[in-house]
């Protein structure tokens, strides 16, 4: 078997790359270890930068996004029992959109299959040669190989592609907390996202639709989900979102709950020979700034441009510049995600002095247009080079 680009991983990065390459007449095969139902229902991100929604719309997969996505123009920072709105669009002229990663994956799978795309589910890549280049995968009880011109490692943080890059430099930070995330069949208590910083810990009120809420709360890093029955989750969320103006949290049936560890991670370079890393395979951010999925999208936009130039002109200039171009954007997003995470979460080891500094920082962001604009321009996403 042979293709032009072998794509390891059928998450948002791999699927979008396959779609963008197809639009340029470049063949690819997506190899995904899990089954279709699993990847289409794995609860993850939900906040899209305007650059992401523009890319989906411009490439012809934005129709349901435009119909069902919730366009937002601001967010609320809530601390000291009061809310402070950050007018994202007023400060930047750009918007963000709430549209679940699961829906993006469904839209991309449907479009690739409708276009005759080759997505192989339950096909686990077990080996790869970045110089041949060739990937070896197991599927249907057989072991097969796929020869190609290039390999895109879109296989997430636990994939096989990053370990195949020799001499890799990695940079990481683990945080002293995790996120317990829930999906609840209840009308959201807010129209815009609420990021709450409370002495008891961080909480985030996001949403998925007029009838489905998505909420998160900070828990210890090794927390057992069994210690969090629904009633306790709602009580803790209500305590952390409490205000003095009578605002009420709507509670309802929890339909999904999971604990996500918080880490910052970057691997350099994001390329070895004919292997290119994209998305979580190359970097991880704490989800506070809603950058993970959006970084995956910008990586594959940059990679698709580079592969298009290569096949159209023979030039490898953009391919040679791929890793540096991605990493400039990755490190900006890493800093913003670290900054927003430490601004809003309670570090158990923080001294009283550090907690006062944190409160002063929150007061500054909530009261200074310059500080709020810095948060806003990073949150809505900086233009893709
Ligand atoms: P993914 O991990 O999404 O996809 C990689 C794919 O590769 C997977 O489907 C996997 O099955 C497959 N794969 C792995 N090894 C393979 C192999 N050997 N062979 C074949 N296939 C293989 N981001 C946010 O912005 N906000 C959030 O709230 C948020 N919450 C998250 C919660 C969790 C639990 C996790 C893990 C991540 C979360 N993220 C969040 C980040 C997340 O959205 C990622 O940034 C996004 O999924 C990145 O997409 P991909 O790079 O495609 O990686
Ligand atoms: C989500 O809706 O899942 C979401 C939104 C904003 C974040 C993180 C997660 O910062």
UniProtKB/TrEMBL annotation:
Gene Ontology MF terms: FAD binding; oxidoreductase activity, acting on paired donors, with incorporation or reduction of molecular oxygen, NAD(P)H as one donor, and incorporation of one atom of oxygen
SUPFAM superfamilies assigned: FAD-linked reductases, C-terminal domain, FAD/NAD(P)-binding domain
Keywords, ordered alphabetically: FAD, Flavoprotein, Monooxygenase, Oxidoreductase
Domain of life of the organism encoding this protein: Bacteria
Segments forming domain FAD-binding: 2-337
Secretion signal, residue range per the UniProt entry: none
Pfam short name (any one): FAD_binding_3
Alphabetical list of InterPro entries matching this protein: FAD-bd, FAD/NAD-bd_sf, RIFMO-like
Residue ranges that the Swiss-Prot or TrEMBL entry lists as coiled coil: none
Record has tRNA-binding as a keyword: no
NCBIfam families named in the record: PRK08243.1 (NF006091)
Descriptive protein name: 4-hydroxybenzoate 3-monooxygenase
Biological source species: Actinomadura soli
